[in-house]
Amino acid sequence: MSIAQDEFFEQVRDSLNHLYDYVYLEDHPFALQYWPGGGREGPNRAQRLHRLLLETIEELHPPAASSRDASYVRYYLLLVYRYVEERPLPEIMRELGYSRRQFFREQRRAIARLAALLKEKLPEHETPPAESDDDLLAAEAGRFLAQQEAVDPIEVVQGVLEVVGHLAEQHKVTLECDLNPHLPTVYGNRTLLRQVFLKALSNLIAMPGTRRIHLHMCREENRVVVELVAETSASNFQSDGAGDGQPSDLDPLCRLIGMVGGQWRGLEIKSEGCKCRFDFPIESQKVLLVVEDNEAVIQAFRRYLAAYNYQVVGATTGTEALRLARELSPTAITLDVMMPAQDGWEILQVLRNDPTTKRIPVIICSVLEDPELAHSLGAVAYLRKPVAQADLLATLSNLPSAP
Fold first, then answer.
1. CA 20, CA 301: separation in Å to the nearest integer?
2. 376 with 276, same domain?
3. Is the peptide bond before 386 cis (omega within 30 degrees of 0)?
4. Of 4, 151, 161, 305, which has the fewest CB atoms closer than 10 Å, so is most exposed?
5. Would you say residue 358 lies in a domain?
6. Which 8-state DSSP code applies to residue 208?
7. Rounded to two decimals, what is the model's pTM?
8. Containing domain of residue 312, as a range?
9. Domain count across the chain
């Protein structure tokens, strides 16, 4: 390899060694080559690099009918076992039939092949254009999108009211609040939710003529609806439009609302004031029950879904799986076929015949090629092992009963 090739190879290997360390990947030289200006709206740089590596590894896995060199399949398995599933080295060598010396030789070849595929995707960057305010907002907010937690919306609003209280005093604006004490805890990013309320209230406080602002928040089905009513002095208030759209100075607010999964419901302007409404979803953390006798696979699924609002619960026996399915009513179940005592087909039949579990979507994950049997027994999807993160995420997002 040339010096440039050696350097690129080492960057690829280093990023693989830190595949699940998002803090490390965020400013990795490899990530900076692809996204020098940071991520745009949605995933941040670390998440994008993580996804790029997994998708490129998956390209080494040809379909069964392909005539591609069989060594690509070996490279694929080696990279999945070593970096995606993080299996112990002795287990990988035993699985692939390698001696220690063979393993490291093949590992280097696999990474080199992966680096070649990644090199083809690397764009030629010229002088990057100046980033717009929208790009900067998306890049800044993107750092928080993967940091999800349980959030109390009432606590968020009360904290925001304390922050904007001084601004309201300066503008001689009275703040009133009407909160439903039974609002549910939501699952999202507290920092971004705070910015939504801070931006909305500060905009209204600073609006010419504002005298009073009333904040009302309540639950409507699976949404929390926020209504802000600003009363103004008619002589000072500037009525320059109305309707479901919004003036351009509200664009940052609407973008923030969208980033937390919310919807802008419109702005109504009258001579005596204005009213704006928006909402955001009530979304409790989803649960995935992973029925698998290999603890390494359960851990891999936890890493796969760490940034995607899933709690992964493992079950290593059929008895444990059935008990947890009844107790937890999970969002979905992934089910390995080769299980001790009861195989996956038997477990699936019991799940489908039990009134408390029959509606839970079940995804068969197996090395056996039998998707037709899986669907005939009531499984909603079939994934071939080893399961790639991209395939698991795509399957979960397409579940008919997924929230």
1. 12
2. no
3. yes
4. 4
5. yes
6. T
7. 0.47
8. 286-397
9. 3
